[in-house]
Amino acid sequence: MDRPQISVVIPLFNEEDNVQPLLDELFAELEKLGRSYEIICIDDGSRDGTFNELQHYAARREELRVIRFRLNFGQTAAMSAGIESARGDVIVPMDGDLQNDPADIGKLLGQLDAGSDVVSGWRRDRKDREFGRKLPSRIANRLISTISGVRLHDYGCSLKAYRRDVLRDVKLYGEMHRFIPIYASWQGARVTEMVVKHRARRAGTSKYGLSRTFKVLLDLMVVKFLASYATKPIYVFGGFGFLSLGLAAAAFVWAVYYKLAGLKDFVETPLPLVTVMFTLVGALSLLMGLLAELVIRTYYESQGKRPYLVAEELNRPPTLKGDTMGAARRDGVPVTVIR
């Protein structure tokens, strides 16, 4: 089959009542765009009639593709499965609860046509509870923007548009689907933001809670580590190790001072114990850093990966016979630039 121009990816979990109205509205909007398309719905282990609704709809429309998970693996896993299965030149993820407006897809595509590589939706007028959803989201968005350097108002909005090539090396884990614009930016993608509509939920129940905010913060720590130290983890572990050894030395000097000044004996102060504790922590941190360096080298060298990404190359000579390094450069798949 010819590659469609647009792939719409929709994770679904217990959205039986929303499937038909969502797809009816989505098909109507996509038809207006005049571009070839496919819709990929991922049933994330729903326990209601979501899959049955999808099955009935897919029998009528061949543009609808359905992937069913055996268990509930979460939105990120469902989004990852949809992105990996997508064949379109542009990939548009969105929620399956009817809170995203399919009419905004055309506007997102317009921003891509204007030269952007990633267009992220911004639900400026959110129809959610202030303290249960909106306030924690605003705090998280500002924190993510500050740490990542990619300033967006609404990382949690699923409605986005990506050029296919910027998602080439993105691997998603945990709750990291919201950080895709960051990964894309690391690869040199031009990331922009556009205000989109947000509607109140009509049916079903929300799958989000306050606990999700803490998961996002933990994932943000991983993202920051990967951004700064994925190719040099010894800097993190070694830095912490030297800090611990420095504290151990300070505690030791303090304890000796007490002893020589006649103020306290070693058994009268916890400083000797603090010295031993920080010495052990420092030594273990340095050893963990060396182990992490071995793991990173195994990761890259065993798969022929490179810690850089080539945009283009001019006047490149042909690969010589027996030139294994040239073959590796030709056939190797570039990976995310790590800064």
The unreliable regions are 323-339
Helix count equals 10
Oligomeric state of shown chains = single chain
* Mass-distribution shape: elongated
Care to count the β-strands? 7
Helical proportion, percent range:
40-55%
CATH class of the largest domain: Alpha Beta
Q: What topology, given as strand order, has the largest sheet?
A: 3-2-1-4-6-5-7
Residues in β-strands, percent: 5-15%
Chain-wise SSE layout:
Elements: E1 6-12, H1 16-33, E2 37-43, H2 50-60, E3 64-68, H3 75-85, E4 90-93, H4 104-113, E5 118-122, H5 130-148, E6 160-163, H6 180-186, E7 191-195, H7 211-229, H8 234-260, H9 271-302, H10 324-331
Parallel strand pairs: 1-2, 1-4, 2-3, 5-7
Antiparallel strand pairs: 4-6, 5-6
